[in-house]
Input
Amino acid sequence: MKNIQNDTPSKKRQHGFTLIEVVIALVLSGIIMGAILPRLLGSADSGEVGAAIMQLTTSFPQAITNIRGRRRTCVGLVIADLASNGASSKTQWNQDYAVAVNAAGNTVTITYPTTGASDPDEAGADVVLNITNLNAAGITAAYASPDLTVTYPCR
Output
């Protein structure tokens, strides 16, 4: 059998990407990262805000209820009492908080700093909004930079 070769010059196959294709890929990657990265970076802080909300709406009220059930009063309540009843002795951002009980012993106020958050004012506003939306019985919250002030009934 006879081997017939084409007289036309052979075309070389292109290997790799052209400069235009690389530039387009980089631009698209930049646009995608610009849209997604801020959300990813903010998700860590939103997780901390969620944990703070749980601490303020679940851990503290349960601890206060336990203390009230045993003592029949909240007078003299301190952070160590809350911690020994399941509440953390620090904020979600590893800051010290303060506890105050009114003279009648019927409300407990926790001053909870947000200074460890990446955006303390946004974190404080988010926590207040969520506590307000939860409409938990008798719990009120306010924010004045850099502290959250959350008041609980002592019943």
Notes: Residues 74 and 122 are 31 Å apart (CA to CA). The radius of gyration is 29 Å.
